[in-house]
């Protein structure tokens, strides 16, 4: 049935294309050849998307709107095949602040810009078993899609042009600029779905995840020649649950919650520009989002004396983790011409603040009088960036002018951890032998609290010009100086040769880097971590009081930790561009080598009963003075190699009878290989700090290939979008060394369909279905999911919520 659905969707797209082609009038090049001007990856003014020296995808606001989800990251992943955005669950804060992956690299290896300026990351550190474990990334969903005009995705290493983090590429979010007009949309939908219950052999029907988004924008004049664009969005989403029957309880019932968190958020953006005379413009923007999310931890059995007090929860309990996030950004800038130079100076501030809470829980060491809700502390990250960019064209006797660009960037970052209330982390006196802290999420202790900062300054030089009539070349070099780890220099060479007006080849070679984040250098927490252990021949999740320590702390150094160093990369790319009239094709091969990647180590566990001189006893002796029985820290030492291919084909048709068709076929092949992992030599027997499960998560947690087929059609007031996305199998590795705990998501195909009708000139009504045929990833085998709590893998590249039906009303004026 699954493959019939895939073939049906592909055949439908082909049939639409064939029908339109058969009826098409002679090609109208001036109407079908769309030249989109881009500013990402080049500092030459007026460069079109198909004329760049490196591949750039342009995703318009219209494209983002033509699907059920209003999440920016989800819509982007559905549009750009090299982008993946999984939907992890039961991963604490990562449930609501989910990371985006480009070309299989780490979420923190893609630089995000807003209007060309560096965007701040979140304060969250992804510590649990999800894609991006150990990383801190930008939260794309903190920017409402209604505030955007377009997104430019540079699929090439660009550290020499933009600095740290641009190893995989750059995502540049371009805010809407309008001095008149406006629009408003209301989108609502819910999941109408069913999936097989492997525990019972029966169908599980779910009707949940009701989501309503209200968004709008308005363009206003600032005087006679300036603009102010205001955008706002309200999102309310109920949680989803795909947990199965729990066979451990009587009567058997669903005890867990596995899916999207309950979420409510409000977002606001203002973008403005005002000419101030003599060719100068004053500009700026402000953005704010408040997000309240509630996700679940794992269910606690009523009979587990280490977790539950029967008089408080006679039927057990499901802890709920609250994540309250405030995200704010503000920028002011001035640009214009001075002595022949185009200058742009700006100051950008960004802050991300996350407060954690946990409710429907308890601290068993406090006994029956334990509180059932706790404030668990929080994280704060902020960033202040000053940037100055200058460019000018010089006639140096080449086939065209040489564009010379240079710039300076100064950045200050701070990171804070704030302690929670005492009961969230303390060990009570009623049952002092029990593990400490609130269950589900242990609060940050006063010993975890920190307030650290650093400075960084970078300078760059970027040259680009036509060396001959057919050959264009560019060279860039960037020098960075960080107050914590020292300096770095990156370089890039790019070239493009146009054989004809229709066909060109392009390529680049570059070096790059990613500075260790403050979060990776200084994050510390003490919590209860469940680690699979062999107990009496049965694999059982055993609780350990686990500390995550800075690598340069006393515990970190004792276990072999060292000061973190920057990651280094080498990027190689070679591609071809063909475009003629309504048809365009780009093919780009790439290789990305990353050395000294920063990762979170394995959890090193100690045992007081282990024999003297064994690893477990040595670890216990090292950790005992610090009150922990297990520890982990961030370290360098993983080397990776990625080889891949991006292909994007597009064909546009204008036909007087059949209408307008925009057909796109795009695909990504990405092979990721871990070549080296770190070990520790401070223990009697050296052990891997990045073992089998962590390695396989890097190599096989994102699809090796992904293909998207999309057709957009419009005629008069009618319109429709049909999209099929094919995903390669993804591995969810288990802890067993023999692979017996592994499972696969399977090769899957997702079909989305939307139909639209415009009433008059201003109102459009849309109905659609994301995941029309209700496809799910392959389930976790029952022997690996006895609780029924996690029937699907969080690594599934399209999630595990099933069919989503929605409607939307959009009004423009």
TrEMBL record:
Protein family (similarity comment): Belongs to the TonB-dependent receptor family.
Region feature (Disordered): 83-102
Family matches, as InterPro entries: Beta-barrel_TonB, Beta-barrel_TonB_sf, Plug_dom, Plug_dom_sf, TonB-dep_rcpt-like
Location(s) in or outside the cell: Cell outer membrane
Signal peptide per UniProt: 1-22
Matches recorded under PANTHER family: PTHR47234, SECRETIN_TONB SHORT N-TERMINAL DOMAIN-CONTAINING PROTEIN
Major location category of this protein: membrane
Keyword flag Zinc: no
Domain TonB-dependent receptor plug residues, every copy: 50-170
One cellular component (GO) term of this entry: cell outer membrane
Database matches in Pfam families: Plug, TonB_dep_Rec_b-barrel
Source organism (scientific name): Caulobacter segnis
Membrane-topology descriptor: Multi-pass membrane protein
Keywords on record: Cell outer membrane, Membrane, Receptor, Signal, TonB box, Transmembrane, Transmembrane beta strand, Transport
Domain TonB-dependent receptor-like beta-barrel: from-to ranges: 284-772
Protein name: TonB-dependent receptor
